[in-house]
């Protein structure tokens, strides 16, 4: 897919949306109908059997709630959900953190399939997913290794964009969106069109987004030639991104077969360095199908396959520097067996292969290849009082280093691991309004290539990272207990959890420093040096609690004055995460502090109005050398209005929206961002910003 095609598609979508919006000004207001949705509103992540109730803790975002939360990155979009925070390497690179765990312990999926990039390797590497094109995002908290591998021990984020339609369509539908923001001078647009019948379906989407340097409440120095001096902006935080996809599905009596091709292009500033930008590209090819066999003891067979070609180059002052490349393939087969009494379940095969390379002076990991083959089983047993589920997974992982033809400090070699995992869970319906859940999991994760072979300066962490080829399989045991209450619009849920690692693989600081060319403990004081951090095993514990709830304060008949005729809800959320190195007693780094939030939400017909705050306590439980972060409170407000417009024979639903973030323009720093320690004060959280936009769906 060419860049010119993408740009043309976005321009066409933008012009169409402007025309529809203009027409809406003259069209008579009518009661809006429900927005068109081509996806069933069911949670699929960690729930392959499609059960109505989940044993694992899950959050789902879609519709208006997702539109109002959208930020330029996936991590910032999800930040603030119970148990979820963000790595926040500035406004352009941010990956989700779940229950204090990040990197390769959090699995990011696209439509249930593998998403290949380099975001888990380094904090400054962005996730090549555009939030404007997401239909639904699901966050599965806690161990999900049975279905998705040891790299999902912390949780799973599944981004669903319907690029391969899984259900027949009737006619043509789609959506388009325009939005902009004052804080980062953002302007963006996206468009999606789907059409089909009982036999065929086609999906096309495209997006384009530009942002400037992000406004903050304090003057910061900038040495970038185009922005020299002091300003109330984060230096080198601008970005440009665009992309799109084409997908299609053929349906037949017993299933479907579909394919998609997608591309993502971005260029953004890295924030930590004033004149370094990253140029990224990602091309993904996916194939998916399902066949309902109803024979040989099997109900259906589902297949997913994908190939991703990812590359990014780091530019220093406009000159290309280090280039990172990751090519990945995945094949996933799931065979659902016919019920055995009340027992339902599936068995699966997953095969993944990744080839990684880094070329340039800042390559801190060698050329490598990782191959993973896994078998898994997942079973559910419905009971009169709820249900039980259980499963197991076994993997064979091979990690091989080929060194680097330009750098001789990397070790070569091939290592094999055989991780095994098992889990069991229960859902107990105590009453029609109360339910209890519990999950117990034992998980093993094979060391990653960089954990074994890294040996070089990593500028994103401001450290010399050293791998250890003697590392063994990481092992953990996790338990969570949850309770949920529902009564009409009122609901509450809370989950407490603990994860014990017998050999958690983490970066631990040594007493040595190294120069850029690898000299250990140089005596020349004029030479730039990096503190050494070595990947090593330690005993570790993660534990905490997360909760959320909604209380209906007033119904349609209980409000007076300008709010009469609407409903008023109080939405509450809170979480607490603790993590510690059990060998030393020190806290683990980059753990979110205790958080408490509340929102008042009013709704009446097509109108939605909300306002609230998120308070983050101080985080002084940090390891030696890390920066403690004081407490802060961020206030926000949002407004939405749905209406309709007639465009010829086409009836269009319009959502006009506005969101004001950090209303008090509070200066704050993220406790989960490594930049708070390594590049302070360069990257505070964004200051006050107003985002406005319109989304049209038909």
From TrEMBL:
Residues 55-156 form the TonB-dependent receptor plug domain. GO terms for cellular component: cell outer membrane. GO terms for molecular function: siderophore uptake transmembrane transporter activity. It comes from the Bacteria. Residues 1-24 form the signal peptide. It is a multi-pass membrane protein. InterPro entries: Beta-barrel_TonB, Beta-barrel_TonB_sf, Plug_dom, Plug_dom_sf, TonB-dep_rcpt-like. It is found in: Cell outer membrane. GO terms for biological process: siderophore transmembrane transport. Coiled coil: none annotated. Keywords: Cell outer membrane, Membrane, Receptor, Signal, TonB box, Transmembrane, Transmembrane beta strand, Transport. Residues 251-662 form the TonB-dependent receptor-like beta-barrel domain. Belongs to the TonB-dependent receptor family. This is TonB-dependent receptor. It comes from Xylophilus rhododendri.
